[in-house]
Every structure is written in structure tokens, then in C-alpha cells.
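Re: that chain you flagged

S.,

Sorry for the slow reply, it's been a week of failed gels. I finally had a moment to sit down with the sequence you sent. For the record, here it is as I used it:
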Amino acid sequence: MSLDAPLPMNELPPKSLGSGFDMLSGIRVLDLTTSIAGPYASMLLADLGAEVLKVERPGRGDDCRAWGPPFLDGESLWFLSVNRNKHSITLDYSGEQGKAVLHDLVRRCDVVLVNLVARAQRKLGIDHASLAALRGDLVHLSLTGFGLRGPRADMPCYDLIAEGYSSVMDLTGEAQNDPQKVGTPAADLIAGMDAAMITLAALFDRARSGKGRTLDVSMVDSMTRFMSPRIVPFLGSGLLPQRTGAKDSVIAVYQVFHAADAPMNLALGNDAIWQRFWSAVGEPAMGEDPRYATNVQRHAARGEIVQRIGAILKTRPRDHWLPLLAAAKVPAGPIYRVDEIAADPALQERGVVYRLEADGRAIPQVGLGIQVDGAQAGVRMAPPRLGEHTESVLGGLLGYDAQRIAELRGRKIV
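Prediction finished late last night. Pasting the C-alpha cells below so you have them in one place:
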């Protein structure tokens, strides 16, 4: 895209800062994580109303701040995608002075998120045992590649590595091509969702029992569970699934087809939909043919059925087929590019994609996508500049005076 070209976000509906959801109001989260998975988990909690204190390294910040291009006004767009509704404070807690500040923060927080392996946690004193000594009802969550225990516990991990371990890469792509990574950091995001989910469960339990918890989320474990609809059938049948470009579903007709001008998806998931499809395309006799009455029969004849459907759909453009099939209540849809996602009026209306206007900045966002009592999630805070809230948190929350904050800053601890 030309540097002078208008940005796609300029076409999105604007959203200003507001109150947001408040279901987690009163919960304070200390986020010591970096990159995508941990920050995504804390953003989900923040979107639901938790106060999130994001601790970053002085001068450098979260690794993700450097991920680019692309950048927007010097800020990484990857960072901006997973860090709204947070306070950013800088703190080097590797030494005693910084550790004392960290301990003051932990005493005032309900949840601590870390994404270092167990050995590194113990070295820095941010493991569960060390921090629970400061606050007995602390919910301590570790989000790592392989978990806190086991033969791989000390191994480093990124999304790419977790996707490989989980088998999702082996089953993604066409048979004749190399294994394919999912087009988004799926292991990061799924593990991040798991981290938010189990944190909520631990907080709910703490409200009843008064007990803290140590939570252990593994990216590989989460991504492997994501593959359970492929793993369990193998375990129970011995049939090894192969990479097919998603043309081997247990549903007989459930795949990509090509209309005259563009690809589209078609999902004929039950007998009634099967019949409605053939009526919609003008061949009701095919839908009533007893040779294809059940999914098992259609599965056996998938090759000839797919060929026949493909020949029909190629005769007209996608915009002909989609309204016709929608009217017949047949599941079908386009295969959107990212620019088409941004332009989709329904997604804009539901607040899934929008332009956040705050503090003199315009920032593209993908929203929570969950509505509560008919309301969309608001945004309380824009993704923070590095260390933007250091003084307000140290002064307002911890009660440090200006002299102490200046001393910490002079020693480059904050």
C-alpha cells in the first residue's frame, strides 16, 4: 500500500472511550507477560472489567512493541491488537529495589500472570510459592509452551512450535503441499483464552473458598485439545487423518467450491439441508434420490457428489448463489480476505471491527465480539504507551511520594 493511500481503518465506524463491561470490576491483575498469548489473556480480562497493570521492561517494553512492520505512528500494530484497557508501568524487578516494588504490587493484586518457564520464575522470585507468601489468596497463572512440569518444561516455545506439536499444521493445507501454519497465531490465542477462562474459574472458586490457586496453561496442551475432533476419531478407529485441504470432513459435503468468479464454502450438514440445497439449485430429484438419503451414503459417494455440485456452482457468480442459498436456509458463505472482513457491515454493526479514537490517536481494533444484555463491550483505555501509567500507579496505588519515584527512575528501575 502506498504511504499516501488512505488507511483501511478510516472507513471503520469510530468508537470513543467509555465505561465498558464491569463484571470483573474490583479485580486487579498484574500482567508480567510479553508477546501475544499472555497479553491476549489479560486483555480479555480487562475487556470484562478487570484492572490490568501491565509490567514492562524499562526502555524496551513488551517484545511485541518491536514486531513490525507494519507500524502505526511508530507503534507496532501487533502490540495494539492485544493491549487495550491496560495500564503500562515500567519496572526492572531483577534487583532488590525493583523486587520490593513488585512485591508491593503483588500485595494489591488478585491475579498474577507470568509466561516464563518454572526455572526462570524461581530465579526471579515470581513463581507461585514466592508470590503466594505475600498474598495467600493469590491466583497465580503460568502460561508457557509446555507447562510447568514434564520433560519439555524448560524448552522455549512460540506459536509456530506449538502448532507443529499439536498436529494442526500436519492437517492444514493441500495434500501435495507442505504442512501449513494457521493464518493467525492460533496457539497463542487459544492458550490465551484458556488462561482467561481458568482465571475466571479460580476467582469464582476463591469467592467461595477464600483460597488462591496456581494455574498452569500450556500452549501445546491447549492447541492439542483444539485438535480433539481429529485426534479422538483416530484413537477410536485407527484411521490416520491426512492433509486434504479440508475436503475430508465427516460431513459428506463440507468444503470449498468455486463459483464462476470466486471461491465459497458450502456445508450440507444434515438430510434436510441436503434436500433444500438441491431444491434451491433446481434439481429436487437429486435431493430425494434414495441412494443419497443419509450422510453415510453421501460420504461413500462424495467424489461424484462434489463433482456434480462443483459443475453447478461454476455456472454462476458467488453473489448469485449466496443470497439464493441463504433464502433456502442452506449454510453457505464467502471466503473473506482481511480487507473484506473490515468492510463487512454486519461485523461493523456488532462492534467486531472499529476505529478507536482516544487521546488524539486513531487505532484500529477488533473488539471482544461478545454482547452482554444487548450491549457491546466498551473501551475504557487505549493500548498504552510504554510506561504511560508508571507514576500514577506507583503514586496512586502504592502511595510512593515523588522523591521515591524519582529515585527509582534515576536508577533506571522504572
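What I noticed first: The chain is about 40% helix and 15% strand.

Talk soon,
D.
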